[in-house]
Amino acid sequence: MTNINLNDLKGEANKIRTYDGEEIAKWLHLNYEKFSEEDGWTTQKKCQVDFDDLPEKNKIVMLKMGTCILQRFILPLLLRIDELK
Prior knowledge:
This protein is mostly helical. 64% of the residues lie in helices and 0% in strands. It is built from 4 helices and no strands. It has helices at residues 6-9, 13-16, 21-38, 56-83.
């Protein structure tokens, strides 16, 4: 794992501020499927679709995960970046 220098993220902070739980959920889903395939693990057929076509319960869980990551990691990171200004 690579450590991140917060000073390096200052320029990205405004872009990061535009993220929302849905964008993160879509990114998580896309990468979950990608990494599963790369590692030779087959996910359920019903989940091998675009995010918007996921079964509703799967989509709800991914949206909750996206929001959780936003609140737990991204927002505190932005606050720390702001303190560097």
